[in-house]
Write a structure and sequence with these properties.
about 260 residues; alpha+beta; four-stranded antiparallel sheet; about 25% helix; about 30% strand; elongated
């Protein structure tokens, strides 16, 4: 229905204005994207420059990558140090995440957990819907860990991890497992393990079950996010590219 049909002012905000405000590109460039059919709104390609949307409800993507239109949503990556629990307030008085979030522009929560002895990538956000998708194992978001383990890891051990092993709380299999550095003389090996399970201390329990207890464990990757060169204890905002990839995963799962 057009404004003339209703006799009132047009509803919504022009698409190019919304995307320019979201930092996608200038209005003129966004207009070109629209003409080229590179933008979708709620899954449908939009090619008319006069298109208006409700930024509060519309789900917009550019070149298939989702865009967050809500400026109140916050997204950060933390390289959690060892010895810090994945909680905003620890009842036992142990070091928690508040020291890393107190200077952020709004209140955020951690997505999933890393046990106190495990360091690495932790996502912080106030986006509950996204957090649910990232944390719940049914959505299959993969996490990659680097583990320093006792002993020399043989190829058959990696095969066993990928084929699956039986733990006290049920069977589990790694999505991928590879040897980064072989231990010599009964020393330590470095192993990379990728899986999408969210079970408690799962990587440690898997490696112990195959005879290689973990000495150190770091999560290097969470879905499309990579820890990169972020130092232990540092926090940074996600880039627009990183956020777009996360939102695209979440919306894909919403469509089923």
């Amino acid at each position: 229905m057009t404004p003339a049909d209703t006799g009132g002012a047009p509803e919504g905000v022009r698409l190019q204005k919304v995307l320019a405000a979201a930092g996608v590109a200038s209005r003129r460039v966004v207009e070109q994207y629209i003409v080229e059919g590179r933008i979708t709104v709620d899954g449908r390609v939009v090619t008319e420059l006069g298109t208006r949307i409700d930024p509060a409800t519309a789900k917009v993507a550019v070149d298939g990558v989702a865009v967050q239109l809500d400026a109140d949503k916050l997204y950060f990556m933390l390289n959690k140090p060892r010895g810090v629990v994945s909680s905003m307030k620890d009842e036992q008085g142990r070091p928690d995440l508040r020291r890393f979030t107190k200077d952020l522009p709004g209140r955020v929560y951690n997505v999933g957990r890393l046990d106190g002895d495990t360091s690495g990538l932790l996502v912080l956000t106030n986006d509950g819907e996204l957090a649910h998708v990232l944390a719940h194992p049914s959505f299959g978001v993969e996490k990659t860990y680097i583990a320093k383990v006792q002993g020399t890891v043989q190829p058959q051990v990696l095969t066993k991890l990928k084929r699956g092993i039986e733990l006290d709380d049920g069977p589990i299999a790694a999505d991928a497992a590879k040897l980064l550095q072989a231990g010599s003389g009964g020393g330590f090996s470095m192993v990379e393990v990728t899986l999408h399970s969210g079970r408690n201390r799962i990587v440690r329990r898997m490696l112990e079950a195959v005879g290689h207890p973990v000495v150190e464990l770091v999560r290097r990757q969470f879905g499309p996010l990579h820890l990169g060169t972020l130092r232990s204890g540092e926090v940074r905002a996600l880039t627009k590219v990183e956020l777009g990839r996360l939102l695209t995963i979440a919306r894909s799962d919403e469509r089923g």
